[in-house]
Design a protein that fits this description.
Blueprint: E1 8-11, E2 15-21, E3 27-33, H1 41-51, E4 61-67, E5 70-76, E6 81-82, H2 84-87, H3 101-121, E7 136-138, E8 144-146
Antiparallel strand pairs: 1-2, 2-3, 3-5, 4-5, 6-7, 7-8
Length: about 150
């Protein structure tokens, strides 16, 4: 699925994210979590939290892999990457990646709608505890999607 983990999209505190492709041709992001000595509670918390959500501003969990020390989460692919690359102008091509004010406003509104859904709208209220530009992903139309539910609480 990930072509032997060759196409790395990013690195976080809990593991790396790789680009993958499902058999039906759909692109995905595979978050391969670092080996841990924990009993998998954080991992299962993230799976439980995000699997209970369905909102345009929340990233969609498509599946997961859990076997002893190997754990991976499979998410929908967000082609524009994370918001921090646009806020801090960290383009890989060293070109400015600043967004127009209208786009920034729409992204802010989408993040607020996603948080409102997590706090009030879904059946199980979820507190994220780690909202930051790195954890907001953007689709091809710059629609923001909140991700990384590792520190969330039900």
């Amino acid at each position: 699925m990930t072509n032997k983990f060759n196409d790395k999209l990013g690195q976080g505190g809990f593991g790396s994210v790789y680009k993958g492709k499902l058999p039906d041709g759909r692109l995905v992001a595979v978050k391969s979590l670092n080996e841990t000595k924990s009993n998998g509670e954080d991992f299962m918390n993230e799976v439980a939290s995000i699997s209970r959500t369905s909102h345009i501003n929340i990233v969609t969990l498509l599946g997961f892999f859990f076997e002893r020390s190997k754990r991976s989460l499979i998410y929908e692919f967000m082609p524009k990457g994370s918001l921090d690359k646009f806020i801090y102008s960290q383009g890989t091509d060293n070109q400015s990646r600043q967004l127009e004010w209208k786009t920034l406003y729409d992204i802010s509104l989408g993040i607020a709608r996603g948080l409102e859904y997590l706090h009030q709208g879904c059946n199980t209220r979820i507190l994220h505890f780690d909202i930051k530009p790195h954890n907001v992903l953007l689709d091809e139309n710059f629609c923001p999607k909140i991700s990384d539910f590792g520190l969330s609480k039900l």
